[in-house]
């Protein structure tokens, strides 16, 4: 699929949907036209250009439907992973309220193109920033229930899903490349130490491990959407999904909750909201071993955030380790693995 203008892109997508009517769900197989298209995001990661577009289609009966297309300039595992997970979860009850995933529409491998339905609502992060205690009790409870629903799925053949440790190997190599290029040797060694501990732990959670489950891989308050009124909760962005330790998603969620809301909430409020989520997930106090595993994943996502900030947010003219946020995240990661 070539880089196209907005109008040409809309025509291409409409023609594609019409050509594959028998393969795609209603009402996306009944579109008469695409009324609008809008670029949501255009970015480049590890040399691969990715585009996210939103469309508004009109059916022959006048019904309006919104959907998204994800397109990359080169072949990438991410869109196939999204398709496989959404297709699988759609068949396992995740199109039934209140715990949902967006309906997958079509995946075109040769074009590196994935299309899914739109999701109505606001990210959990927005509710956190607005500090809505009563709503958040329900929203965070539903978030924990969504994870439990995912992790309780019985999988006959775990080998069809990529082990998270395999995904991490590629990503951790990238983290070290960026970390050692932009940080001092001392900081680079700290990052290497943390990643080594994480990899040693996660590598055991493969398809043969009876405790491994499906995991989202990027389960955080920006990827969980709450629909007010209907009280539905929908999780999006399955780029990093696979099979592994279920507590990976737990550690990510509470780490990202604190990271993204620290400028809007007090530490007391953050701890309260973390507890709301964890109380529903565990139903009782987590064991020491469960707490250690959660700490490992908080360290993992702290380092992920460090590398993201160094690669995309901090100017090349500045030293990332001089940034207070980066410095604190590295310190947190070291402390979390030191508790093991």
Key attributes of the depicted protein:
340 residues, Phosphorylase Kinase, domain 1, four-stranded mixed sheet, five-stranded antiparallel sheet, alpha+beta, globular, Aminoglycoside 3'-phosphotransferase, Chain: A, domain 2
Describe the structure.
With 340 residues, this protein is an alpha+beta fold. The chain folds into two domains: 6-117, Phosphorylase Kinase, domain 1 (2-Layer Sandwich), CATH 3.30.200; 122-338, Aminoglycoside 3'-phosphotransferase, Chain: A, domain 2, CATH 3.90.1200.10. The protein contains ten helices and eleven strands. The strands form three sheets. The protein has a five-stranded antiparallel β-sheet with strand order 1-2-3-6-5, sandwiched between helices.
């Amino acid at each position: 699929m070539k880089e196209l203008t907005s109008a040409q892109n809309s025509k291409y997508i409409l023609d594609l949907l019409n050509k594959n009517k028998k393969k795609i769900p209603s009402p996306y197989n009944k579109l008469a036209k695409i009324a609008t298209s809008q670029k949501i995001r255009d970015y480049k990661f590890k040399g691969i250009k990715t585009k996210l577009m939103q469309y508004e289609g009109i059916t022959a009966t006048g019904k309006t439907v919104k959907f998204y297309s994800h397109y990359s300039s080169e072949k990438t595992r991410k869109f196939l992973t999204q398709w496989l997970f959404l297709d699988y979860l759609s068949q396992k009850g995740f199109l039934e309220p209140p715990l949902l995933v967006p309906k997958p529409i079509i995946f075109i491998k040769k074009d590196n193109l994935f299309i899914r339905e739109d999701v109505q609502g606001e990210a959990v992060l927005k509710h956190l920033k607005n500090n809505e205690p009563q709503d958040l009790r329900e929203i965070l409870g539903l978030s924990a229930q969504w994870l439990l629903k995912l992790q309780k799925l019985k999988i006959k053949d775990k080998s069809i899903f990529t082990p998270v440790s395999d995904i991490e190997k590629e990503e951790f190599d990238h983290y070290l490349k960026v970390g050692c290029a932009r940080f001092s040797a001392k900081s680079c060694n700290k990052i290497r130490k943390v990643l080594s501990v994480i990899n040693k732990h996660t590598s055991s959670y493969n398809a043969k491990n009876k405790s491994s489950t499906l995991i989202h891989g990027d389960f955080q308050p920006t990827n969980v959407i709450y629909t007010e009124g209907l009280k539905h909760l929908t999780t999006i962005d399955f780029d990093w999904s696979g099979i592994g330790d279920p507590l990976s998603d737990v550690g990510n969620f509470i780490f990202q909750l604190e990271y993204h809301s620290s400028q809007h909430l007090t530490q007391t409020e953050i701890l309260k909201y973390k507890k709301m989520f964890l109380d529903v997930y565990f139903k009782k106090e987590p064991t020491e071993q469960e707490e250690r595993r959660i700490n490992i994943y908080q360290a993992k996502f702290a380092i992920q955030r460090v590398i993201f900030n160094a690669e995309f947010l901090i100017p090349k003219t500045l030293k990332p380790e001089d940034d207070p946020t980066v410095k604190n995240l590295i310190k947190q990661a070291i402390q979390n693995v030191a508790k093991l």
